[in-house]
Each structure stands twice: as structure tokens, then as C-alpha cells.
């Protein structure tokens, strides 16, 4: 029953929004640093979207009621506080779609830190009725200034006229993202491409989720100064769908987001993440790798821990890119990805996420036999279950023409297929698949003729970060 209600609600909102009749009505929050909504009240039809642009300070758009202007309405819409830095380049925008134009809606800014903004009259309404004793904006605002408690609300007839708000002028495209569609822990779509000027709008359809900016390296931690919708609870009986938007001012940049809800489950760890302008071919910018990081729950302090270790990397003189490989993601016996292609000058970085693995160079023919003499070896990297720092091991490739093979030298992990390669050729006899098959078959040296004595070409790589 609930699901049905929600689905029809979503459909009801989407359909008109896509029709040509639906208008977008722009409301400025705090223009010129003032403690006001501008306009203070609007008239909206079914399907119209009212979009609040936060222009200064730290206000909210919080639904209340005519009777209690300065009290959040249970189950009402709430943008949460939207601080706007003086030099902000991305202005937060919060929107709601109107489903019932006969019903007046009342809002206030819940900020009370320096001054109680509601008591100053920073209130707003949609579809007020100037001639109604219980629905006029003037009376609502008077109640707010008088800080009228619920029980004492009185209505005074007023005769304000209501002018329709100007429709917004928007040059870029509007890209819709559904949050929690079908009660899932998803953003749909999970990743988008957006150009400068485009507006990305998140519709909260269910549950109690957020759209919170993070970073590729720490998917489940809010980015300092980043965009945050706040948690958006959608009550079973809610008649409005909260929508949160912002406009992209730099279409060349990648943006990463998560839902910061952790009750009853950590939604980020469940993969409830989203990205804008991911690069599927980049190890440090792809949505797939970002989501894998989120599921692996790379902890907050990791970013700095990794960063600390990474400072050992000589200021990336090389113009090569960094390729990230996760070791033991999700407690699994895997390198992820299992094999990569790298160019000379690229840095390959291994992040140890669980257990006690190694990245140890070996040979194609005898993967699990023993470390390659003179080869790369991270040594064992034990990770406590409660670890807050993640060790990272890197090297820079000098020669992209020779395939390199690696295993985890821990116990029997190699024979369980925990191997990795760089620059394999899937069509040659030395393919990663064949190498992994050798590992799983536990090919061992014959009594004689093993290659342990063979020294790897030292110039195939230079080790950058050791243990
Ligand atoms: C309602 O908003 C309109 C602008 O849309 C404004 O002209 C009018 O004064 C407002 N009413 C009140 C009572 O403030
Ligand atoms: C939703 O239901 C709750 C209680 O079930 C009630 O307190 C609240 O006023 C309702 N909200 C709306 C918008 O109808
Ligand atoms: C719209 O709101 C009015 C006033 O609250 C209510 O009487 C009516 O039933 C609502 N219509 C729908 C379709 O929910
Ligand atoms: C915005 O206001 C809220 C409520 O007063 C406060 O908790 C929060 O720290 C403020 N944010 C900033 C960045 O000032
Ligand atoms: C939404 O989630 C937050 C964080 O878990 C929680 O504090 C808040 O009470 C929830 N809201 C509702 C209405 O359940
Ligand atoms: C990125 O989103 C597109 C749809 O926009 C989807 O087809 C693709 O699978 C997504 N990529 C990943 C890695 O989920
Ligand atoms: C990691 O594994 C190695 C080899 O099995 C072992 O010697 C070492 O004690 C382990 N470290 C921890 C902390 O378990
Ligand atoms: C991690 O757990 C171990 C064993 O329970 C404990 O000794 C150690 O203090 C914990 N470390 C942290 C950082 O919590
Ligand atoms: C090699 O890695 C790619 C991803 O980088 C993967 O799609 C492919 O399946 C891997 N090859 C084998 C044989 O596992």
C-alpha cells in the first residue's frame, strides 16, 4: 500500500514536471545578505517546482504551519541548514514539486544562532489566500513575528494581493536524479555527466537519505565545505517530494557524493553513492572504483594516513597517472582490479584494506612458488579489523613492454587465485587468465631448472614507497 502510494506520487510529480505546463518558480533565500525570502510568497500550480536558491549566510527552508510558524511540521519538508560561504561558487538550491494547489504551504528559516530569523519575519508561503483568516501570508508572518505558540494562533483577515512569481530563466539542462526510488538504497542514475550551467536535481522519494559531497579517496566522509542536502526524511503521508539541486559551475570537474544515513544501516557502505563526470577509464575517477571504495568503507583517517604515506612519493615529477589497486576489498582474497594496463611513468598504488596480504612479484610459470629474486615485495601488511589507517604501497613503472606478475605470499592465498598482473596480453600465452590458472593449479618448480636465480630487470620499475 505504501509502495503503491509512493510510486503514484513519484509518477504524479514526474509527469507534470516533464510537461510544458509546469513552471519552475525561483525563490531567493537571503538575497543581498538580507533575512528574507524573495518573493515572500508565491502561487504555484500542480506540477510546478518551487526552487529555493540559497544566496548568503546560513538559512533553511523548513515547513511549518499557519498556526505555529516557527515550529517544524512533523513530517514536513526541510532543506536543513544551507551555509553559503562568502566566496561560494556552487549555490545550493532546494526544490519542492507541488502536488496539491488547493493546500497552502507555510515555511520559515529555522536559524536561531545569532538571531531567531523566524521571529524577524523570515517566512514564506505557497498558495496563501489573502482573503482567508487562516491562510493569508500577512497573518502568517505576523504570527511568526509575534512568536505565537501553537495554541494561541489567531487569524486576522487581510487583503494582500498575490502576484505570481516570475518563472525562472535557466540556460543549462536540468538533470533529474531519484533518491531511494522503489525503497532502494540507490541514486538513479548512479552517475551522470553534466556541463557547466546544468542543474542537477535530486528528488527524495522514500526513506531518510542525504546527498552529501565526499571525495574519491574517502567516499563516506563529508567533504569540508562540500554540498550537503542534509537528511531528507520523507514521511509515509508526505504530500510533497523534497528536491535538492545545485548548478554546476565547472563541468570539467568530477564530483562524488554519498548518503550519510547510518541508521539502521550505513548506506554508503551499501554502495549508496553517486558521481558527476566520472571517468570510467581512470583508476582514481571512475564511479565503479569510487563505489568499491565506499563498500570497502575506507575510513576517514585513511585519507590523511594515505596522504602521509604518499608524501614519501617524490613530488610526482612524472606526468604519469596513478592507478589504484585495492588489496582485500570486502575481506576478499582479491586484487581489484585483478590486472591493469599501465604506461611507463604511471604509478601503481596498492591499498591494503583487510587481513594480512602482500604484493609480491613472481613469475608467470610458477606463481605461488616463491618471491621473484630481486623483485618487488610490499612485505606483509596486516590490517586490524579496527584499523583507521590503511597502508599503501606504490611503485612507478619504467618499462611498459614487459608484463609483470604478482601474488600475495600469505599462506595459501595464491593458490586461491589471489594474483595480479600489469600489462598482460589477454591474447598471448602469458595472459592474466593463464597466470591465474597456473596459480590455482599451484604449479611448482620441477626439482631443477627453477627460475629463482633470474634477476628481474631493475629498470622495469623504481620503487617509490616501501614499507
Ligand atoms: C506576496 O508575494 C508578492 C510577490 O509575489 C508580494 O507582492 C506581496 O506583497 C506578498 N504578500 C505579502 C502579504 O507580503
Ligand atoms: C503525517 O502524520 C503524522 C503522524 O502520523 C502527523 O503528525 C503529521 O502532521 C502528518 N503530516 C502531514 C504533512 O500530513
Ligand atoms: C488538497 O488539499 C486540500 C486542502 O488541504 C484537501 O482538502 C484535498 O483533499 C487535497 N487534495 C488531494 C488530491 O489530496
Ligand atoms: C549553520 O547553522 C547551524 C544551526 O545554527 C549550525 O549548526 C551550523 O554549524 C552552521 N553552519 C555553518 C557552516 O556555519
Ligand atoms: C532521519 O535520520 C536522522 C539520522 O539518522 C535521524 O536523526 C532523524 O531522526 C531521522 N528523521 C526521522 C523523521 O526519522
Ligand atoms: C553510470 O551510469 C550509467 C547510466 O547513466 C550506467 O549505465 C552505468 O552502468 C553507470 N556506471 C557504473 C559503473 O555503474
Ligand atoms: C602477518 O602474516 C605474517 C606471515 O604469515 C605473520 O608472520 C605476521 O605475524 C602476521 N601479522 C599479524 C599482525 O598477524
Ligand atoms: C584495536 O583492537 C585491539 C584489540 O582489540 C586493541 O588493542 C587496539 O587498541 C584497538 N585499536 C584501536 C585504534 O582502536
Ligand atoms: C583483467 O582486468 C579487467 C579489469 O581491469 C577485467 O575486466 C578482466 O576480466 C581481467 N581479466 C581477467 C582474465 O580476469
UniProtKB/TrEMBL annotation:
Composition-biased stretches (Basic and acidic residues): 458-467
Highest taxon in the source lineage: Eukaryota
Region entry Disordered, spans: 448-467
Signal peptide annotation: 1-22
Name of the protein in question: Uncharacterized protein
Organism: Mycena alexandri
Spans traversing the lipid bilayer: none
Key words of the record: Signal
Amino acid at each position: 500500500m505504501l509502495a503503491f502510494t509512493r510510486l503514484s506520487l513519484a509518477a504524479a510529480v514526474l509527469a507534470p514536471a516533464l510537461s510544458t505546463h509546469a513552471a519552475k518558480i525561483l525563490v531567493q533565500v537571503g538575497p543581498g545578505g538580507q533575512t528574507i525570502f524573495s518573493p515572500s510568497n508565491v502561487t504555484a500550480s500542480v506540477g510546478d517546482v518551487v526552487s529555493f536558491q540559497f544566496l548568503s549566510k546560513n538559512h533553511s527552508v523548513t515547513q511549518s504551519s499557519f498556526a505555529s510558524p516557527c515550529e517544524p511540521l512533523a513530517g514536513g519538508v526541510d532543506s536543513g541548514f544551507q551555509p553559503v560561504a562568502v566566496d561560494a561558487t556552487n549555490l545550493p538550491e532546494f526544490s519542492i514539486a507541488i502536488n496539491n494547489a488547493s493546500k497552502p504551504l507555510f515555511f520559515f528559516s529555522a536559524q536561531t544562532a545569532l538571531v531567531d530569523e523566524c521571529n524577524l519575519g523570515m517566512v514564506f508561503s505557497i498558495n496563501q489566500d489573502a482573503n482567508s483568516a487562516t491562510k493569508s501570508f500577512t497573518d502568517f508572518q505576523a504570527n511568526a513575528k509575534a512568536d505565537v505558540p501553537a495554541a494561541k494562533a489567531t487569524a486576522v483577515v487581510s487583503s494582500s494581493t498575490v502576484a505570481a512569481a516570475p518563472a525562472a530563466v535557466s540556460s543549462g539542462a536540468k538533470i533529474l536524479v531519484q533518491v531511494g526510488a522503489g525503497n532502494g538504497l540507490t541514486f538513479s542514475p548512479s552517475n551522470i555527466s553534466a556541463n557547466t550551467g546544468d542543474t542537477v536535481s535530486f528528488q527524495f522519494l522514500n526513506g531518510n537519505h542525504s546527498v552529501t559531497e565526499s571525495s574519491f579517496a574517502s567516499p563516506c566522509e563529508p567533504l569540508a565545505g562540500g554540498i550537503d542536502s542534509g537528511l531528507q526524511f520523507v514521511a509515509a503521508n508526505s504530500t510533497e517530494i523534497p528536491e535538492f539541486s545545485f548548478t554546476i559551475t565547472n563541468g570539467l570537474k568530477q564530483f562524488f557524493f554519498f548518503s550519510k544515513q547510518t541508521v539502521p544501516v550505513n548506506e554508503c557502505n551499501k554502495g549508496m553513492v553517486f558521481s558527476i563526470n566520472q571517468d570510467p577509464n581512470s583508476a582514481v575517477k571512475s564511479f565503479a572504483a569510487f563505489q568499491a571504495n565506499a563498500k570497502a568503507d575506507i575510513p576517514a583517517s585513511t585519507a590523511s594516513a594515505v596522504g602521509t604515506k604518499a608524501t614519501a612519493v617524490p613530488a610526482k615529477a612524472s606526468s604519469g597517472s596513478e592507478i589504484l589497486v585495492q588489496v582485500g576489498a570486502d575481506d576478499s582474497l582479491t586484487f581489484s582490479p585483478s590486472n591493469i594496463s599501465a604506461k611507463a611513468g604511471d604509478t601503481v598504488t596498492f591499498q591494503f584494506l583487510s587481513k594480512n596480504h602482500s604484493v609480491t612479484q613472481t613469475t608467470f610459470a610458477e606463481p605461488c612458488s616463491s618471491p621473484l629474486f630481486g623483485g618487488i615485495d610490499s612485505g606483509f601488511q596486516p590490517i586490524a579489523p579496527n584499523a583507521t589507517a590503511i597502508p599503501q604501497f606504490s611503485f612507478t613503472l619504467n618499462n611498459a613492454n614487459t608484463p609483470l606478475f604478482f601474488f600475495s605470499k600469505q599462506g595459501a592465498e595464491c593458490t586461491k587465485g589471489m594474483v595480479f598482473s600489469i600489462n598482460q596480453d589477454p591474447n598471448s600465452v602469458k595472459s592474466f587468465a593463464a597466470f591465474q590458472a597456473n596459480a590455482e593449479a599451484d604449479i611448482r618448480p620441477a626439482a631443477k631448472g627453477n627460475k629463482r636465480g633470474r634477476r628481474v630487470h631493475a629498470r622495469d620499475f623504481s620503487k617509490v614507497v616501501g614499507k
